[in-house]
Amino acid sequence: MARLAQTAGLTDVQQEIVSTVRDFVDKEIIPVATGLEHRDEYPQEIVDGLKELGLFGLMIPEEYGGLGESLLTYALCVEEIARGWMSVSGIINTHFIVAYMLKQHGTQEQKDHFLPRMAAGDIRGAFSMSEPALGSDVSAITSKAVKDGDEYVLNGQKMWLTNGGTSSLVAVLVRSDEGHPEGTAPHKSMTTFLVEKEPGFGEVRPGLTIPGKIDKMGYKGVDTTELIMDGLRVPADRVLGGATGRGFYQMMDGVEVGRVNVAARGCGVAQRAFELGVRYAQQRHTFGKPIAQHQAIQFKLAEMATKVEAAHAMMVNAARKKDSGERNDLEAGMAKYLASEYCKEVVEDAFRIHGGYGFSKEYEIERLYREAPMLLIGEGTAEIQKMIIGRRLLEEYRFQG
Fold first, then answer.
1. Whether residue 379 lies in the annotated active site
2. Which of 79, 341, 366, 379 is labelled catalytic?
3. In Å, what is the CA distance from 341 to each residue of 88, 281, 374, 375?
4. Mean pLDDT score of the chain, rounded to an integer?
């Protein structure tokens, strides 16, 4: 067992789950990840293995066929999966954001209809908030839903949809001015729709098109797509929670879970980078001895390990805060910010330790070097996290004068 990133206070069940996932990662993901990533190939066998382990139902309540585990257990599993290959953790993440939103905000009929099949992995979830011209300004959403009898007609273009092709259920955030007078704050006139579709690309249901995969620098294997709605008709009973105007809050609740996930991914990638760096430093010799015996390399290893440990501790704290039922946007923002920044730094240091070999596609660190930047952007940039953290700190430490 590695010395770094241990978590105190886990139950026997949590330890068993995390240990099982770690073994799966070591045997089924790490040996094949780089080859699949270089081919940009969807990891179907890995996903099937995760389905057999029951991971698609990890946080879904037992009454719906899931394991009913905590966000902490989920985050620790994501950390292990990202240590093997970050793209696989992305496949899990978007699924769980949708499942969490359904559990927290769905109607009873929506929970009964979707959650059992999501727990079994038969329905794969994706969520769609961003748009081509949106960036971090969610209030600028232009995709729109218009009421037409017992249905809504959706039009617009969405962007950066993880699992866009492979998913069969997408939670889509759009504007819905119906019932909200002119001048209503933008975030109070948004609605989340549960859109069912066939997996694949092209026109996956009337009015809904999923173009081909976006070609990316890293984060390959997992499909990232656009989503185009042109007269897409969705029944009114597929409004998440049954009422319009709540979508922004539902999405932000889901994103808090997503930020803990991104922090966990950063921890996992950083752990793997440290493992690769410390191993290579003991194998590579210069000036008659392993480079690990040179003080300059030891300093790097010390800094890398400290960052891995600090990021893990903050991620665990954010997950436990959410599990307690308390507001955790401050902790989640801090964890996501620190873990993603430290991940980038640890990966770069491991890359430097590898020297010229780190630039070769034969070495795993090359893949990690391309994957780490995505974490700086996903679920909110560093700048957005700082805004969230700063505002919350001013709420907590408001000067009474």
1. yes
2. 379
3. 21, 23, 11, 8
4. 93
